[in-house]
Input
Amino acid sequence: MAPGIRPGFRIVVLGGGTAGWMAACLMAKRWLPMGAEITVVESPEIGIIGVGEGSTPQLRAFFEDLGIAERDWMPACNATYKNGISFHGWSRVPGYQSYFHPFPSPIDAHTAPAFHFNSFCRRRGADLPATSDRFFLSAKLAERRLAPLPARNFPFDIAYGYHFDAYLVGAFLRRHAEGRGVRHVEGRVATITLDDAGAVGALVLDDGRRIDADFFVDSTGFRSVVLQERLSVPFRSFKDNLFNDSAVVMPTPPDPTGLGSATRAIAMNAGWRWEIPLTNRSGNGYVYASDFISADEAEREHRAALGLLDADTPARHLKMKVGRVERHWEKNCLAVGLSQGFIEPLEATALHLVQATVEGFIDVFEKTGFEEAGRRAFNERINARFEGVRDYIVCHYQASLRDDTEYWRANAANQTRSASLEAMLAAWRCGGDIREEVRRQDIAKYYTDMSWVCLLGGYGNYPRSLRPPAPEERRFDMAVIDDFVERCALNFPDHRAALSAGERAD
Ligand SMILES: Cc1cc2nc3c(=O)[nH]c(=O)nc-3n(C[C@H](O)[C@H](O)[C@H](O)COP(=O)(O)OP(=O)(O)OC[C@H]3O[C@@H](n4cnc5c(N)ncnc54)[C@H](O)[C@@H]3O)c2cc1C
Output
């Protein structure tokens, strides 16, 4: 029996948003067979945040781990495939109006050396193609609106994420968890009692019901009623280097010309907006900094961009608390989801962080139970992960090369960055080896060298005046690479057709 788990061990997950149900599902799979009891408590009256429509590839492993097939969950959640993110309008440098950020796949081994080499030479002034779009199969799949599901005779797996309706994913996971024996209680927690050691003792609902447990998961969203409010764990804001703190969201009908298979992230006057294709609608959200634009102006700018100026499509306004808690696991409480922190949604990493937190916790709790050393190491790992993701997102704003509004100028002028990001930018600027820098810092577990080069090069951070490449710099023939990517893409189906035909990965 694992040190922290014994028959009758009671776990209460407070919060029935995506984070709470993800935690309940993962813990149920592992610990219900060991005799633990898991209860999810949520207040329908408070409700869930209900946004969050994109994922990273790790979500595939989440569903696989739970034994849930794509054919079961995807149609139930209006889900689509995501080959990556295409960034538009983040740079004013000619030729760099957009670029594609793929998820790393094994097949990239055929073209990534050329991408890295060309990018490296371009930083030294050689006029060579170096934008990710021409080098990576995922970019071609996104451009052609293809699903990342290779034909049977194509022997490579392609990394992909998903787009989905957050409400439907939560409801699906709830059914799954309840089917496995997780209990569900509806009610609003009014009081949280502490024991003599300052650990959480019980939740008391506003109708007087009392729920005791041995361990509590705080998934109460930005409220963080257990970890931050009751246990007083401090919150570290990332506001100094990530300015966006608000969003305005509105759906539009699906694109009649075809079903996209990538998220679009489009720069705006005081932030950026996403376009996410679902099977039944497009999700759209403008993420902005309220220090630079009012909610009304942001809504107007967003409506204009979507062509909804006169339409009565309702807009939803949201506030975001960007940063992380100092300790995600404190005494007998683990915060999961928005209650532990949030980095703005540019890279759609929130559910990935939920998954990493819960999986990491299960692993360490089974090994070391409540021992302080295990808890401390876990908290340090999760903090490092939050900061690794944050640095990559901050880099978008530092590297973007837009200076046409006060917002973009303030981002460019902002000197608040971590030592890790500082070193990465210095390596880029002085023509250093980015692969070596990522290795040296051991940060590939957050973003690979390919991602860093896509980003830094994608905005055109190259010398302005270029010279013809020297013969030794023409090592890679672009015609060969174009042909390779083109032929590979022939093995993939149209996105809408693949989803309609039920051609899913499993
Ligand atoms: C603008 C925006 C865009 C985003 N985009 C993405 C994205 O593309 N990809 C991604 O992965 N993530 C994204 N996110 C994050 C994503 O929305 C969340 O990580 C995810 O929905 C999980 O939220 P949650 O479960 O932590 O909180 P919530 O959904 O807010 O759930 C909180 C739960 O706690 C309950 N609760 C709170 N207080 C009490 C109480 N006192 N008593 C009982 N119950 C209580 C509520 O009823 C609710 O069930 C985005 C977030 C924002 C703001």
Observations:
- The pocket of flavin-adenine dinucleotide is lined by residues 14-20, 41-43, 46-49, 51-55, 166, 188-189, 219-221, 223, 225, 247, 285, 287, 318, 320, 337-339, 345, 348, 350-351 (CB under 6 Å).
